[in-house]
Amino acid sequence: MSASSGAIERFDDKARQTFESAGRTTVYRGELVRHPVYTRALHWTVALFFFLALFSGFGIYLPWLFRWFTPIFGGGQLSRIMHPYFGVGFVFFFALQVLNWLQPMLWAPGDTRWMLNIKAIASGQEKVDPPETGFFNAGQKVMFWEIVAGCIVYIITGTILWAGAKTFGGIAVAVSYVLHDISALIMLGGIFIHIYQSTFGEPGTFQAMVRGAVSEAWAWTFHPAWYKQVTGRDPVQACEEARRAMLSNERR
Amino acid sequence: MADRKTLQAVMISGHTNPSPGFAMQRDLEVCKLVDTTTCIGCKACEVACVEWNDMPFTPTTFDNTYQTMPQTTAHFWNLIKFNEHQNPDGTIQWLMRKDQCMHCADPGCLAACPADGAIVKYANGIVDFNQENCIGCEFCVSGCPFDIPRFNPATKRVYKCTLCSDRVGEGLEPACIKACPTGCLKFGSKDDMKFIAEERAKQLRDNFGWQNAGVYDPQSVGGTHVIYVLHDATDPERYGSLPKNPQIPWSYTWWKWLAKPVFGTFALLGGLGILIHHVINGPRLPQPEPPKKDGTNVSF
């Protein structure tokens, strides 16, 4: 474990340092660093290639409904030629993100409890996340590992579809065609949830991927264990103090 | 065709006899009949196809048979396949089959194609590729049970036999038919060709001792507009990759036409679901939230 993971760590550290010197993360008082420049750059590169692949794939997926997507890419022929390259870009940059995020994305015992409690959390009954929720919550981890699985499916089926029936045979293409679709449908559903949760669903999240910093209140609300780890303070206590301060402000 | 039929006189004033063309039937569906029992392997049809369609030279390899090349290419749509079949009694059959697009009534290539207007099926049964609309995805190659469409890497388009739709549209027979010296190739309406083929198969059964002689017109793809008379219709495989029961893959039938739109709609409805979730539950705000106007969330 140590030799290879050490190499990955060195690679990640080097990349983070390089990007940190190129970009900037401004942290104001009452804020915490959430995502360094490297993570943000990777995220938006992955997002760019994801949407290019998604939209160029739409016209091929359901032409009678989505054929108006193909002119965006210069017509059907160019859509078909570029779609695999977009896909390769998506998988490549997501692979870098996997190396970057492998450690915080590992499944923890608390994640199973989070998942069992997902209804209360998603409906907003639980105002704050369970105290053992770390840098990523279980929902984010499921999304992450789903994309890892999806990328493996994309690589295998995409290669078969790219090379075509003359290389891999008609049956392989016909099966890959369906698996490629299913993987895309799952990710299409996932991206709705991802965008919603990071913008309107949980306000204060979007800036984590844009500016790289989040408010302390955001941290103790949605990722209490991470808050405790980086500040050393108890998240519940910190929240109560903030509430009292807010109320005394109110009375004044 | 239809407009000619509407201008057909059915009643004529002061005319004693039935009107001209009375009870005449006009059959729209065309068909090519290939009688493998009278093919001599002269390859005149191959040359005629290359000539008429103005194909460039296609390099080939010699594999110790009379066959021009291992399989059809993007520039060679019509190939006589030579096969040596050993009968159970030790005798050898030297089989020659003209391999080309079968022009299925239920075309697998068309079902698989995602490009608008790249593959069309005409009312006369001809299945044609419009290369200007082809996006070169090659799904048609995997959708075809006869392994016919051929991808040209230079143009990134797929090509195959057109049944000389340009000639047929002008009332001419396909080029291969015109070139055939033995009459093994015939062209006409589907009904006529089916009738001739059945007659020939009966002749082979009754007079020539081919008990299993029959017509190859596979119903699993709704019938084809190229039909064969075979010495042994129970074993078409011996003629070189002629499937006994050609099937279109299920990915291009129920998955593409039912599951895809249904699941796609579900995925898009997910977007609507999120809107509903937001309207019903609202956002989860970082705690502590500012006190509400009525003071209901001042303390837990």
Give structural notes:
- The complex is a heterodimer of chains A (252) and B (300).
- Helix content of chain A is 76%, strand content 2%.
- With 252 residues, chain A is mainly α.
- Chain A has a single domain (2-251), classed as Up-down Bundle (Fumarate Reductase Cytochrome B subunit).
- A two-stranded antiparallel sheet of chain A has the order 1-2.
- The longest helix of chain A has 32 residues, at 170-201.
- Chain A is elongated and about 75 Å long.
- Chain B is 26% helix and 16% strand.
- Chain B has helices spanning 2-6, 44-52, 108-112, 139-143, 165-168, 175-179, 190-207, 254-281, and strands at residues 30-35, 79-86, 92-99, 119-121, 127-129, 150-152, 157-159, 185-189, 214-216, 226-230.
- In chain B, a hairpin with a 5-residue loop joins strand 2 and strand 3.
- The mean pLDDT of chain B is 89.
- The chains are: A mainly alpha (252), B alpha+beta (300).
- Chains A and B meet through helix 2, helix 4, helix 9, helix 11 and helix 13 of A and helix 4 and helix 8 of B.
**Oligomerization state of this entry?**
heterodimer
Structural class of chain A: mainly alpha
DSSP strand tally of chain B: 10
Radius of gyration of chain A equals: 21 Å
Cα separation of the termini of chain A? 58 Å
Mean pLDDT, all residues of chain B? 89
What fraction, in percent, of the residue positions of chain B are helical? 25-40%
**CATH-defined topology of chain A:** Fumarate Reductase Cytochrome B subunit
Predict the CATH topology of the largest domain in chain B: Alpha-Beta Plaits
Mean pLDDT of chain A: 91
What structural class do the secondary elements of chain B suggest? Answer: alpha+beta
Envelope shape of chain A:
elongated
Distance from first to last alpha carbon of chain B = 82 Å
